[in-house]
Amino acid sequence: MAQADIQLQIPSAAFYIEPVRAFVGNLAKSLGFSRKRVADIQLVLDEVCSNAVHHGSVNATVGVKLCISIDTDTLEILVRDTGTRHAGKKSWLTHERLSEIEMNRSPNNESGHGIFIAKSLSDMHEMKTNASGGTDVRVVFRFLKPRDIEI
What we know:
This protein is α+β, with helices and mostly antiparallel strands.
């Protein structure tokens, strides 16, 4: 398969996450991912985009960028937000806050599970602050080759 790069930008509103989720799901399915793995990819995308929209954007006009890369071995998704510009408010997903967020995650709490889900379901998960003061979240999903499947 030839390498491909897809760039998308959506307004920072939850309404726009579902069409992107459907697009990436159809893309993953056409790339040969199993139905279960497609669901995993869509769930991770949903969680990462939701965090970017709800915690990493000033308002809906700023937008969230997605960079989707396909190569012979992987499907990679980068979600980039611009960060909040509220005085005194911390960036939502820095390495410094990761342990705090994970420590506060509990079955009784509605929030804080997205990062755990992304880390658990992707083959690789990376977060870093970007030049605009926001957060870049990169998740990678490897294509399974016949020799990778255990019987």
